[in-house]
Write a structure and sequence with these properties.
The complex is a heterodimer.
Chain A (H helix, E strand, L loop, with lengths): L1 H20 L16 H20 L48 H21 L1 H17 L9 H18 L11
Chain B lengths: L1 H10 L2 H19 L5 H8 L8 H25 L9 H49 L4 H18 L4 H15 L2 E2 L6 E2 L13 H19 L20 H23 L5 H16 L7 H24 L5 H12 L6 H6 L1 H24 L1 H8 L3 H20 L3 H18 L5 H23 L11 H27 L2 H6 L1
Antiparallel strand pairs in B: 1-2
């Protein structure tokens, strides 16, 4: 599979980077005993072998395509076993869903990555709360995907931030990042 | 006897009971809501335990573990969406039963069988753990290395049904453990000019990133309505009748021991045990139609895993699954080093933990039984609010460990790495478990070589070492064979469930 091939190359790149970084490590000080480079070299060697193996195996079946997720089978009760008890109702159709099989929306995915990255940089620069308010708003904005108008997200943003402030700052007195600019 | 009474005295006070109630509640909520896992719940609560005494801290996290394992059945049965991977097998018979008006009975059966499996696993833990710990006292550096090597290899091999992918994921984790001060000679290495890396990669920040951030990113990016189904009828827990319990008792005992055995093998965990339990249930009923046995089997087995997974974690310092890896990290943060010495030096803690495990199971039984309406309401809670809040909680958790902003960057790096692994179809758990097992592996490997003055023969001198190396080969070869057969058979699901 192409995916495995690309990942193997990434792993080999990681090994090479580690190998280059090993040059600055001093050798062992005790004669006969393995030094600080020994274990990393061993790990790098094994990882490189596994990555090469994966790379080679990725050519084994070039026509292989990603198969769609197999739904978990659902069986229905025979009519004789139906009861009058409680339940979610027979009108609810559909089988079991595996959350891992759900495919993310590409634009929202990029936005989510950027949100996480900007949030962390924001905390570093302006402090926890000043970064959290826009991050919560943007997180909600990405999650609702235009189904809720932006101004309706302001109240939950305020409530979530207030709840965090109440629990961590007022009740638990947790020290939170202050930010470099203020 | 006085030890047992003393243990219960330690846990039966207002503070501890409140802690257990809180942990169990958070666990059931995290277990019940699809997309959230109890591992995520444990990791998010861990920073709140820093100021608590060790027993109280671990009790809170155990509450999440047991509550989460039990609560996973709620959404499996009511929504047909497994709350946790361990509850995927419960979905197979639980959801059809629910659709046919037996939701209450299925929920009651799941709850009773979960608690039965969990309690039996605690009893087994209490009997087996001291024996294993006593035996482990004989281990020297070479034996400990072989044991850690076995744990690490099986974790990598079994984690997602693909040995090679598991090993690559695990060795990536091992590579990150080499960052910082070398554990034997104290030399700085792989810090890349970043001063904060001298003390290494912070385990908790890395774990938070690996377990929570990829999920947050993914759930924020999907249509949340796909993870929500309307529950049209009012649901309450209906416990199985005595006749039904009598009919299922043999199956429950069998599945509990399957769960305990599977849990004790590093890297296996709840999902495998649950599917084996389901298989046993189907063998018993000998029919393809959904039955209460199809709920009882997997639920007994996955809760049996909890006590089983604690055996290698407490006695040998080898976590059985990601949740016990976080618990191991929690013990280390609180100054308790899992291993045989824990049983001799902190016996009061161990007995207190046993008592807490028993009480937590009873609390979960009552809480989930009577509070099912509340948990059904929780299922309808908007995922967008939940995951945005979790992102904020993650940053607080990562920062609170050392009051160090750099750890938030570590968390994000680990999160992006976790997403990358997930995207390319590599399991995340081996990377995290490697971070736990890497330092003792390197330390004992090098200590053994120092003792033998560089003679590698030391690793093959002891029969204990041989036993672990052969066990490693046996497990990995078996898994590789299964992977090969699954690939030939084109079974997409086999690998995932293995």
């Amino acid at each position: 599979m192409k995916k495995d091939r690309y990942f193997s190359v990434l792993v080999l790149g990681l090994c090479a980077f580690w190998l280059v970084s090993s040059r600055s490590i001093p050798p062992a000080t005790m004669p006969g005993a393995p030094g600080p480079k020994f274990f990393p070299y061993l790990v790098m060697g094994c990882l490189a072998v596994f990555a090469l193996l994966q790379f080679a195996l990725s050519f084994r079946n070039p026509k292989e395509t990603v198969s769609p997720p197999t739904p978990i089978p659902i069986r229905t009760l025979p009519a004789s076993e139906k009861t009058e008890g409680e339940g979610i109702g027979e009108d609810d159709e559909g089988g079991c869903v595996d959350p891992d099989d759900l495919v993310p929306d590409r634009r929202s995915l990029v936005a989510s990555f950027l949100l996480v990255l900007l949030y962390v940089v924001g905390i570093d620069l302006v402090g926890f709360y000043l970064a959290t308010i826009p991050a919560v708003f943007l997180g909600l904005f990405i999650a609702v995907k235009g189904k809720t108008p932006w101004y309706k997200l302001m109240l939950p943003t305020a409530l979530i931030t207030a709840a965090i402030y109440g629990v961590f700052t007022l009740a638990l007195r947790v020290n939170l990042p202050a930010g470099k600019l203020f | 006897m006085s030890l047992v009474l003393g243990a219960f005295a330690q846990v039966l006070n207002i503070k501890m009971v409140l802690i257990m109630i809180l942990g169990s509640f958070v666990g059931i909520v995290f277990g019940a809501i699809p997309g959230l896992t109890y591992s995520m719940g444990i990791i998010l609560l861990l920073p709140l335990t820093f100021h608590l005494p060790p027993l109280m801290a671990v009790t809170l996290l155990l509450g999440v573990y047991i509550g989460g394992m039990t609560g996973g059945s709620v959404s499996s049965i009511l929504l047909g969406i497994p709350g946790t991977p361990s509850a995927a097998a419960t979905c197979l018979d639980g959801f059809p039963l629910s659709k046919r008006g037996m939701a209450g009975k299925a929920l009651g059966t799941a709850l009773v069988s979960s608690i039965f499996g969990g309690l039996l696993s605690v009893v087994t833990l209490m009997v087996v753990a001291p024996i294993v710990a006593k035996f482990a006292l004989k281990f020297g550096p070479a034996e400990i290395f072989s044991l850690v090597f076995f744990g690490f290899s099986t974790i990598c091999g079994i984690s997602m049904g693909n040995v090679l992918k598991g090993l690559i994921s695990g060795f990536i984790g091992l590579l990150f453990t080499t960052i910082g001060i070398d554990p034997v000679m104290g030399m700085s290495r792989y810090t890349f000019g970043i001063g904060q890396l001298i003390s290494g990669v912070d385990l908790l920040a890395f774990m938070i990133g690996m377990f929570a951030i990829p999920q947050v990113i993914k759930i924020l990016s999907i249509d949340e309505s796909l993870l929500t189904r309307k529950i049209s009828a009012r649901v309450s827990t209906q416990y199985p009748s005595l006749a039904e319990l009598k009919r299922m008792f043999g199956l429950m005992v069998k599945c509990a021991f399957i769960g305990i055995g599977i849990g004790a093998i590093p890297g296996t965990g709840g999902p495998i045990a649950a599917f084996l339990g389901y298989d046993q249930a189907k063998r018993k009923t000998r029919r393809s139609e959904p039955a209460l046995e199809g709920v009882a089997g997997p639920e007994t087995a996955n809760n049996g895993v909890t006590g089983g997974a604690l055996i290698p974690m407490l006695t040998l310092g080898i976590p059985g699954d990601p949740a016990t890896a976080i618990l191991l990290g929690a013990l280390l943060i609180h100054g308790l080093k899992p291993g045989p010495m824990l049983f001799t030096q902190h016996a009061d803690f161990i007995y207190g933990m046993y008592a807490a495990l028993i009480v937590i199971h009873l609390i979960v039984l009552v809480m989930q039984g009577f509070g099912i309406q509340l948990f059904v309401k929780v299922l309808n809670f908007r995922k967008s609010y939940l995951y945005t809040t979790i992102l904020v909680l993650c940053t607080i958790g990562a920062f609170a460990v050392n009051n160090n902003e750099f750890d938030i960057y570590v968390m994000v790096f680990a999160g992006f790495l976790g997403y990358l692994l997930m995207k390319f179809g590599y399991p995340v758990a081996p990377t995290v478990l490697a971070l736990v097992l890497g330092p003792p592996m390197e330390e004992n490997f090098r200590r053994a070589l120092i003792l033998s003055q560089g003679d590698f023969g030391i690793f093959l001198k002891s029969p204990i070492s041989w036993f672990f190396y052969l066990a490693t080969i046996f497990v990995l070869a078996g898994q590789a064979r299964r992977s090969f057969l699954a690939a030939r058979g084109g079974s997409a699901t086999a690998g995932k469930r293995a």
